[in-house]
Amino acid sequence: MMNATRRPWPLVAMLSATATAGYICRVNISTAGALFMKEFGLSQVAMGRVFSAFLLGYALFQVPGGAMADRWGARRVLSLAAWAWVALTALQAATGWGRWGASVVAALTGFMALRFLMGAAAAPTYPAAAQGVSRWVPVSFQGRATGIVIASVGLGSAIAPPLVSAVMVRWGWRASLLASALPALAIAVAWRWFPEPLGASVRKTESSQDRTIASSQDRTIPRPPSPSGLRRGKPASSLRSRSFALLTLSYSLQGYVGYIFVTWFYLYLVQERHFGLLEGAWMSSLPWVLSIVSIPLGGLVADRLAAGRLGPVWGPRAVAMTGMAGSGVLISIGAHTASAVLAAVSLAVATALVLSVEGPFWSTVTRMPGGRSGTAGGIMNTGCNIGGLLSPTLTPMLAASIGWEPALHVAAALAVLAAALWLGIGACGDARVVD
Question: Exposed end of the chain (fewer CB within 10 Å): N or C?
Fold first, then answer.
C-alpha cells in the first residue's frame, strides 16, 4: 500500500487526461461556432449568450461538484462527469435535426440549455482532481501533481482548435463536435477499469498512527507552539479562516486577469496591434504553449521550496507572489510598448506567469483537513470563475472608455494585488488562525 502512494504518477496522469478531455469538450464550440453561427444566422451577441450559458453553469456548480467529490470520491465523480460530457456533446451535435431544428429560436435556446448543462457537468473537474490529489498523492508531491493536472488548460486549448477545425472543414460542425467527444469517451471507459487507488487507505492509516503518537506525546511533553501564530484546529475552521478567504479572493483576481487572455488576446492583437489574421492566430497560441510548461513547473518549484528552507508556507507563497507580480509588470510593459511584437511576447509570457501559480493555489487546497478539499476547491474555483465572468465584459468596456492601455494597466494592478494577498495566506490546510 505504501508503494502505491510513492508512485502516484499514473493517478496524476489519469486526472490530467480527464481534465484535458473535459477541456476539449469545453472549448470545442469556440472553433465549431463559426459554422454553427452561419447555419442558424446567429449574431456575435447571440453566440456570446451561448458562451455565457456554459460559464454560468460552470460557476454555479463548482461547490456542489466539489462536495460530491468529497462524499463519493474523485474516481466515481470524474467517471460520471466524463459520460455526461459525451452525452451532452452528442446532443449538441444533434441541434438542428428534426424537432431540434423547428426554428432558429428553438435551436438557440436548446443549445444554450445544453451548454449550461455542459458547464454544470464540467464543474467538478478540478475540485474533484484536487480531492484526488489530496487523498492519493503524498504532500511533498502535491504542488507538481496539481500543476500537471491544471496544465490541461493549455493542452486542451492547444489540441481543440486543430482537431475540431480539421474535422469541421471536411464533414461539418456536427461531426467536429462528435470527434471532440472521443477523448472523453475513452476516459469514461478507462475510469471503469482503472483500479481503485489505495492512497486514501494509506492516509487513513497514517492519520490514525499520527493521532496515536500525538496522544502518547500529549501525556508526556507539552506541544510546542506553531509558527506564524497558527495552531491546529477543527477541520471546519479552515473554510472560515482568514487564510482561506484571502486565498479565494486572490484566485478570483487571478481568474479576472487570466480570462482576459482567454477571451480577448487574439482580437487585441489583430484589432489593436494590427497583426494579420494568421499571424495573430500563431501569436495568440504562444501563451498556451508556454503554459503547458509553466503550470507544472510552478508546482514543482513550489514543492521544492516548501521542502527546503522556505517551508510549507513560504514555498507556495514565493511562487505565487513571483508569478502574479511578474505577470503584472509584463502586462504593463506589453500595454505600453510601441512595438507590436514586444507587446505580443510580453503579454504571452505574462499569461504563462499568471497560470504558473495554479500549483500553489491548488496544492494549498489539497491540504484542507477533514476530507473537505473538494468543497474548498469548489469554493475557490467559484471565485475564479466570478472573476472570469467579469473580465470579458468589463475589460472592453474599460477599453472603450479609457483606452486599451489603461484597461490593461488595471489588470496589471489586480495581478499585483493578488500577489500581495499571499502575505496573509498561511498553511490554511494545516492550521487555523488564533482568534
Answer: C
Nearest to 365 by CA among 62, 85, 78, 119: 62
Q: What are phi and psi of 41, to 5 degrees?
A: 65, 40
We report the CATH number of the domain holding residue 249 as: 1.20.1250.20
Same domain, 247 and 361: yes
pTM score of the predicted model? 0.68
Round to the nearest angstrom and report the end-to-end CA distance of the chain.
40
Query: Could you tell me the residue range of the domain that residue 25 belongs to?
Result: 7-194
Task: Specify whether the CB–CB gap between 316 and 360 falls below 8 A.
Answer: yes
pLDDT digits (tens, 9 = 90+) for 127-154: 888 888 888 888 777 777 877 888 887 7
Q: Per DSSP, which regions of 143-198 are E strands?
A: none
Place of cell 455565457: 52
Locate 404 and state its grid cell. 486599451
One-letter amino acid at 82 equals A
Whether the CB-CB separation of 362 and 126 falls below 8 Å is answered with yes
Rounded CA gap, 289 and 157, in Å? 9
Backbone angles phi, psi at 224, to 5 degrees: -70, 150
